[in-house]
Amino acid sequence: MKKVCIYLFNGFSDWEIAYLTPELKKSNLCELVYFSTDGKFVSSMGGMCIKPDKALSDIHPEEFDMLILPGGMMWDQSQNNEIEPLIRQMLAAEKFVAAICGATGYLAKLGLLDDVKHTSNALVYLQWIATQYKGTTLYINEPAITDKSIITAGGTNPIDFAYEVLKALQIQGGEDIEKWYQLFKHGIWKD
After folding, report:
1. Which end of the chain has fewer beta carbons closer than 10 Å to its terminal beta carbon, N or C?
2. 0.90 exceeded by pTM
3. Has 49 been annotated as catalytic?
4. Among candidates 4, 1, 8, which has minimal Cα distance to 103?
């Protein structure tokens, strides 16, 4: 059983995890936990009001296999700094941290993309948002990338992000993940 937590905050980009969360939720091999800073309701960028399962203080890295960070404007405004200790603890324990869109910029600000292959919205975005960023030679212009225990994706690539997360968690057979990816990415279903 894999245990995954997703950080929600006011203004999170709901569409960036929309392909992923149903796959995690329906799996008998995965427990999905949503949390916010204080455990209170948050509103997504699309206006969905959501009651998380837990507060940040209830999330203990040793209990989880992966932390997922959806994008949103709050990352660019450095208003989610309370999540930094959890991110660092997850990586120190060699647990996965998956970030998409603005959350990749936050990882760059923390220096966590300086020594892993990664992607984002664009290289210039990371250079703009994280002035101390030193990972330019490891930036790869691809929809989504997994290196070591960090998964990154650009904000226009939620299907590729979900694909990388599903592969990393190994809660479905490889063939099933490939079929899912081909269906949602290309509209092709092959038996």
Report:
1. C
2. yes
3. no
4. 8
Q: Which tokens belong to 19? A: 């392909």
Domain ranges within the chain, ordered by starting residue: 2-186
pLDDT digits (tens, 9 = 90+) for 131-178: 999 999 999 999 999 999 999 999 999 999 999 999 999 998 878 999
As to burial, measured by CB atoms within 10 angstroms (0-12 exposed, 13-18 middle, 19+ buried), residue 160 is buried
**Catalytic site residue from 5, 30, 49, 101:** 101
163: which 2 tokens?
A: 């694909």
Q: In CATH, what number does 2-186 get?
A: 3.40.50.880
Calculate the CA 149 to chain-centre distance.
12
The residue among 127, 101, 104, 132 whose CA lies nearest residue 117 is: 104
Residue whose tokens read 């910029």: 105
